[in-house]
Each structure stands twice: as structure tokens, then as C-alpha cells.
Amino acid sequence: MTGKWIRVNKTPVLDLRYRVSGLFEGNTYEFRVFAENIAGISEPSLTSDPIKATRAITKPGPPGNLKLKDWSKSYADICWTKPTRDGGSPILGYVVEAQKSGTAQWDRINKDLIKMCAYRVPGLIEGLEYRIRVRATNKVGDSEPRELAETILAKDILVPPEVVVDVSCRDSLTVRAGQIISLITRVKGRPDPEITWSKDARALSRDKRTEINNNYPLCELVINDAVRSDYGKYAIVAKNSSGQAQATIIVNVLDTPGACQNLKVAYVTKNSCMVSWENPEDNGGTEITQYIVECRQPSQRGWTVVSSDCTKRLMKAPLTEGCEYFFRVSAENKIGAGPPNETKAPVLAVDPIEKPGEPIDFQISEIGKTFCFLKWKKPDYDGGSRNLAYHVEKKPKEAEDCIENQIYQFRVQTKNEGGESNWVTTAEVMVKEQLVEPEIKIQLDGTLVVKAGDSIPIEATVKGKPQPDVKWTKDEGTAEIRKGPRLQIETGADFSKLLVTGARRTDSGKYVVTASNSAGTCSAHAKVNVLDRPGPIRDLKVSGITTDRCILTWEIPEDDGGCDIYNYIIEKCETKRGVWSVHSNAVITNKANVTRLIEGNEYIFRVRAENKMGPGPAVQSEAIVAGTQFSVPDAPEAPEVTKIGKEEMTVQWSEPEKDGGKPITGYLLEKREEHAVRWSPVNKDPIPSTRFTVTGLLPLHDYQYRVKAVNEIGTGSPSKASRAITAKDPPAPPTNLKVLDSSKSTITLGWTKPVSDGGAPLIGYVVEMRAQGSAKKGDDGWKRCNVAAQLVVCEFTVSSLDEKLVYEFRVSAQNQVGMSLPCDLEGAVIPREILEAPEIDLDADLKQGLTVRAGCPIRLCATIRGRPPPKVTWRRMGIDNVVRKGKVDIIDTMTFLVIPDSTRDDSGKYCLMLQSPAGEKANFNLISLTDTPGPVMNLEATDIKQTSVMLSWSPPENNGGSDITHYIVEKREIDRKTWATVKAEVAVDKIPFKVNNLMPGTEYYFRVTAVNEYGSGLPLNIISLSLFLSPVVEPKIVMPETASARAGAKLRVEALVSGKPAPTCKWMRGEDAVVPSSRLAVHQSGNMCVLIIKDVSRTDTGEYSLVAENSSAKVSEALKIIIRGQCHIRHDHRGKLNEFTF
User: Fold this and answer.
1) Where is this region: Disordered (predicted)?
2) CB 119 within 8 A of CB 74
């Protein structure tokens, strides 16, 4: 605010309005007005409110020039221009809306605003028509829409493919090896064609060198690092549903030529030779300019150029007499020289070779049954060639082949490069088998002796005709020796060898070789002795043990190692030291005295035999103690007092583990008062048994006892002292012991207190048991049962019993003095179950039945009894017969069934079943639930008309425990979510019920709900019986009048068919129906009916029609199909394209 008033108009304004100009946007202004007449100017008016100078903002105008650029069966491309007015605010974007044909609703297509003036409308449904409009948006809101002038039919635009080769590679393309082959084409067509590249009629695919880029309309084939094999005819095929197009490109890859073929060297003399060859199979893509001829001698590595500019395929090469040469030839073009082709064998520079001389000393060395063995020597003159060969022929007198007892004549000649010599012939000879009895000799004198680990070679010479069969065996066995890892057998014409490697002691023996043929049999043998260390001695014993010596005896080893045993080695070891020392290594007999032992030490001994190969394995004796053989017995275990009195006690003990080698003759028992130092003997003579009653004790004194064992050697060490026992009378035994209860694994015992406690309070009872037949010598078999804690009551349950055994029981009372005499159970007992039949006790209320409101829990309980505890099962009698939702608990003698959140389905008869080996017991309870009724049954719609329908149904299967009072009928249009009530109270006797006032052409859902005194039940929807009430519309067909295609292509004809109800369609050709086949197909999807013909020909030309029929009418639409002729291509005799016609 400046605070200065400025006049706006220069001349008075006659109107009561004025447009003020020259304001600055964003500034705030105030205005006032003066009135003027001829008398002058009035006072100013009141000041107006402050006003900020801003542009007036409104909604923008609609977009302009909306056009359809392209479309297909799933999208449409549109474009437009900006609105002429933006409403005073920048255009933020655009909104595209679409409307399907037959509906009045416009749907927004884009979620976000479109910034550009072009858009692809997606999501079109094939065959439907759409209307498109666009709105401009600024910050005020959306403009009025601009609608596309024409409607859009969602279908593909069919344009046959067209292929145009780029000028850079049109007709042909030439590249050098290693360069890149780039074939560029431009492809058009709708829909986008499928591109296929091929080379020489073989399809190409992407690999390490090949790239295929299809960026329509540009399609490119790129081959990196071109090689010679890439040359050829490349073809691109573009194919879509409208047809296909093809283009070819000839590619030539220039490279060095291949290797020359059929290299030959002929007319060799001592001075020259002629070298010839043929052109390579591949000239490298360009003409061959010259050939390079080279040679080398076998002793040289480098090649010498004979000619580097030879243009012919034949040349004369100079040679040096007596030398050998290799030749090689390579072709060369403008790219370079190709690989050479080399001769495989050297050529010797000599003059032509003459015929060789005749073989020398030609004779028959051996005659067999069906063969003759011929021998001769080389001729003296080889004709100047070292490559000699021989021809052998036979001349039979009668038969062609060598047959026994026939006469033959043989001849031989020499042959080299110069020719063949004269024949040398034998005299006539008769072919027959010569029988010679086998003869075999082993080249071995006496017995073959080898050391263990060495090899055993045995060789035999074999003679005989025919060739004998040779077999090796060992000892007296008949099994043939076979080859193995250590055994090798080699047999020839006149010998047989056996080789055994890594000889072992078990390889010793007699080896027999046998040769046999049709003339007889012959055998020879060889004895083999393998020397090794001796085996272990046998039966080592220790005897004559004294304080300082003992005697060792043993048997000689079973195997002496193949040679005499020289001596035995004796070693000893003190067990506490664990160190072995040699006692003697020169014992020659199998008995030895071992001296210098230390009395009381424990020793072990080992003995091994030794021969000239070394000592064998040692054999160890048992441990012995140096000393006399017998000793005093060990100390017994501490004695126990088994019976207590105020003047006597019974003491018992067990025998010691060792008796010292002599039987125990008795025991010495000693006693002392507690805390005394000296022990006093109880008996003078040894006690023969392990129990003794000590008398003459002082009442209330504490005594301890110990015992010593006695044998012939003497008295052993005393045992440990027993615990101190007070001389008092023990309590009287319990009375009236009996079995209170029993099961398969337990027995419960009961008894009464003793009549006397012995003068001291009872501290508990001891229960003992034993199985019949378990008593053994020295063990009466009684075992204490209550070990864990002191038993103070007159009852105890013995567990973990075996039902197959018979048990005895006894109980003893215990006070501070000791244990009373036991009270035995009269008779043995077998653990067995006490059976008690199951019983059920129910409350009186449950016996009369239970009524529960739906939603409340159901609780059933019962008291159960039985031995053994019965198995509890709750069941619901009826359809399922099983309680599915309930929870069953068993607490002591009570069982509970709880069903939370009960429903009407839980009504019924419930059964409680008890089962045990003692029997079964069942009880039934009737449960009634009050609830709303269930769904009605058999809801049907009949008598369907355009404005009404008749509904009928049956009462619900479950009425909720109360009679049905009335029904509620509701309806819902298919495009709505809420239900409308048709009638709230339909009386039970008003079924069926008629629904009126329905809208024609609208689809409805109906449902019916039953009502009782507890409320409305579950509704039943008639979803599967939905009603579509609509007028009948006769069929309408929209399709082209004509359709054409080129022969060999695929023809597709689409037709839009509408009508209510939906009509059925049928394609006709003339008066006959079109029959689908592998080449012809008919499809109908929604309102689209399609006819497809593959590989069309001129025979498919003709008049077709589509017939659509529904309940209202039958209509037909004609179609004319025209097929254009095929392309005929002519080639000349060289396979080149000459001319083509259509």
C-alpha cells in the first residue's frame, strides 16, 4: 500500500461500471468514486474493500482436434491438441474416458493425469465398440469433454507384411573374414509380423556370434567375426495373420582358399619328377591367382620353394639323385595363401626299378592236418627296390582247399615296383596230420628253494604234434592253476612258463605240468620249498613254581619255516614294570628252567622259535607269582547281625573271594564292645558254617564283630568290623498280614501292629518279597520292597511285579533295637487284576433331558466307577455319531463333556459309553437347543414372466425348537449389493408366493428367511436359479460382404452377432454346412463368430453365408470369398532365376 490516491479515468464516466486497466498482478488496491455535475465534484464515496489484482481462474476449455491414430483388438491410440483456453491456470494434464456400447456409463481410463497430447487406451475387449472422450484439467477442475467423432471397434487392423532390404546389403553383401555381417531390413505389417531368419533353408537362432534384433520396423541380423562358412543365401520371412513376405540376401565372405586336392608325384627319375594337383574345394570366395610349390628332404625341417608363381596345376620339379623328397602345394588368392597339402610318403630320386630275383631255398618245413608251413630266403637281387613282396600259390591235385590225405604243389615269386620274378615250385606233397606223442621236460634239478618274497620261476619245454594243451596243477589237486595278481602263466609253441611273485610259505609244494594231445599225455613236476621264519610254538605251560624259579614246557611249531629250527628264545617280564628281558636265546629243547625269580613278584613269559631265516612270532604265557603255590585265605566281608536279643545275637557272614588254594576249614569269630581296644574270641575251634549265635551278652551294651577264615596254611586276615548293635529284645512280629488289593503289576498288603514293641517305640516296618524258586545257595532270595523311605503305616503297595510269577511276602517291625521276626503271608500270591463292572451315576436333572439356548455351552458330567478304570467314550447318536466340537475331560472318577458356543446342529441324543474287561455300560441323554430356524429347503422359481415370478419352498429341516411363524422374502438386482424386502411377513399357508413389479431386462437374486419366536433364521439364496428378465431381440449379423487372400495364405473372417437370447451360429457354403477340419476352423466367443481357412487355394473361392438363430427369428448374411492365383517361378538349367509369373 502506497497511501497515494491515483485518478483512473481522465473523462467522466456516464455508466455506473468501469473497467480499470494498468493494474499490476499481485498488488492490492482500494477504490473510491466521485460524482460530478455542472456545479462541480462531490465528496468521495466510502473506500471499497481491498482487492488483490489477480487473473480470474476458471475451468479450461475442451481439448481440440481429437483424432484416432491407430487401434487393435486390445488398444487404441488417440491424439489431440491443447485447449484454446486454459481458464487462467496452466493445464495440469488430461483425463481419458471410455464408454462401452450398450451402456450409459463413462469409465476413467488413466489413474494419473496425462501430460502429453497423445495416449494409448489399453484394456479393450475384442469385438466391442467404444466411444472415447478427453477432458483437460487445471487446478480448478476438469473441462467439458471432447468426444471422438467415430466409435472404435476393438479388432486388429490386418495389413499383410512387407519386407524392404536396406540399400547397403540389397541383392548381395561381400565382407572379409573376421569382419561383421550386418543385414538390415525394414518390415511393415499389422499385427507385428513374426520374423524368421534362415541361411540356405536352415533357420538361424541367437548364439555367441549371431544377434537378431527386431525393433519394428527395423529388423537386423548381425554375425560377428565372420568366417568363410558364413557365406550363402540368407532369407528373412515376415509372417502374421494377414499373410507373409520374404526377402533374400546373398552374402559372400572372402578368405584364403582351402587346401589343394589329390596331390600326386609321378614320373620320378634320378633328376626330376612331375607334381600335379587339383583345385581346392573352396577358393575363398575369389579367384585363385597362383600356386606355391615347396619341397624338403626327410632330414630337414624347413621347406624350400620350388615355385611361388605357378598358374597351372602341373609342374616339373628338379631332384638330386639318391635323395628323398616331400612335396607340398598351397593355393593363393588376393586375400592370401591357403593351407598346404603335403605328400604322405617321400619320393626317392632314382631311375625306374627292375624286376627282382627269384626266392632262394624254397621248401616245406612242416605239414599238418589242414596246413603246410612254407619257408624261403630273400632273393640275391632286389631289382633296385627295397619294397619286396611275395606271391604264394597252391595247386591241388583234386580238392581246392587243404584237405587231409590230398596231394598239393606250391610255388612262390618275388614282386617289387619293377615287376614280378619267375615262379619257384615245390614237389608234390601229401597233406596229412603227423602224430607225435607229447614230451615235456622241466629245466630243474632237484628241489627249487626260494626265500619268502622272492619269485618262483618254473619253465618246461613242450613237444608234440598236434600242438599239445598244457595245464598246471599243484600237489595232488586236480584244480588247474589260473592266472592271478601273483600268478603268471605263458605258453608258446614249444614251451610253458609259470611265475609266482612274492612267494609265501604256503606256495611250497609240488607243481605238476601236463601236456596232452590226440597222440597221448605226458606230465612232469617240480618241487618248490619256500623258506620263511618258523610259526608260533604250541601249548606253552608254566609249572614247578617256587620262590625263585619255574619250569616252561612247549610243543614245537606246526610249521618250521621250511628248514631246521636252530634254537628257542625265552623272555620274561615283571608285570608291575612292563619291561621284557631275554632269559636265554640258546635253548635247543622244548623245555627250560627259568631261575632268578623274586618271591612275591608276578611274571609273564614268552617263547619264540628261530631258524636260519630268523625268529618266529612269540607265544605268551599266563601271569604267575613267584612263591609257594598255596596261601592263607583272604578276609571275608564285614559280618551282619541278623537276630538281636538282650543276651544273645546271631551273626552271619559270607565266604572270602579267594581260599588261598586250599579249602576253608572254618572261621574264627571275635567281638568287642564299642569303643573298646581289644578283640576277644567268641569261639576256640573254627566254625564250619557262616552263621553263629553269640551268647552271654550284657543287656544294653553295644557290640561289634569281625571274622577270620582258616585253611591248612593258616588263618587269614580279619574282616572289617560290623556296625555296633545294642543288646536289647526286638519288637514282636506284626500280625494278620493279608492282601488288600491286586492288579497285573501291583499287590497292596495290610497288617496290624505287633502286640509288643520290645520296650522301645516302633520306627517303621520292612516289607520283603521273593519269587518262588528264586532262592539259591547262600541267598534265601528275600528282597526289601520299601527302600526309599521309612514305612510307618500298616499298608504298602508293591509295584513292578510280573503277572507270570508267584510271589511270597513278609513284614517285620523295627525299633531302635532292631528288626522283629518276620510275619509271613499265608500262601503265595499271583498279581492279577480285580475286575469290577463299570457303573455310571448321573444327576437327576440330566436323566430328564437338558434344554439349552443356542450359543450357550453344553455341560454334561457323570460319576464313573470300575476296575480296571474303564475307557470313556462320548458319542452323539445320529448323522455323525461322533462329538466333533466337544472337549472331553476325565478327573478322578468324574467325566465331563463341554461343547462351547452350541448351535442348533448340536441337538440330539448323546451317549456315554464305558468299556473295560469287566464289561460295558452305556447311558443316553437327550439335549434340546432352542434357536432361530435353519434355512428353507427346495427354493425354486417358476412361472417366470417379464414383471413377475412365482417362488416356492419347503419349511426348514430344523425349526430351532419352535414352530415357524412366517417367512421374509427379499430380492436384489445383480449390480447392487443391498437386499430389498419384497414382503416381511409371508404366512405359512401363503406358499407359493408371487413377486410382482419386477423391471424387464434386469437380472435378480431372491432369498427367503424363516422366522420363529426366537428370531429370523439363515436365508437361502437362489443363486443358481438367477432370473434374467429381458425382452426378446432377433439376431443381427455385422460382417464384410467380401473377403480375399492370396493362395497359400491364411484367411480369417470375423462377424459380430447380437440378439437375445444369444443366437446359435452356423457357417454355410452354398446349401451345405461348413465342416471343420485340420485346414478349416470355426470359433465362436461371446458375440464374435470367426471363420479361419489355412493354406487357401482357388478351390476355396465361392459364396458363403452365416446363419444366426434364436427363439425370435433366423437371419442370414452372405459373404463372397475370392482367392488370388499362386506365383509360378521358372529356373534355367543352371538353377538361376529366369522368370516368374502369377
Assistant:
1) 716-736
2) no
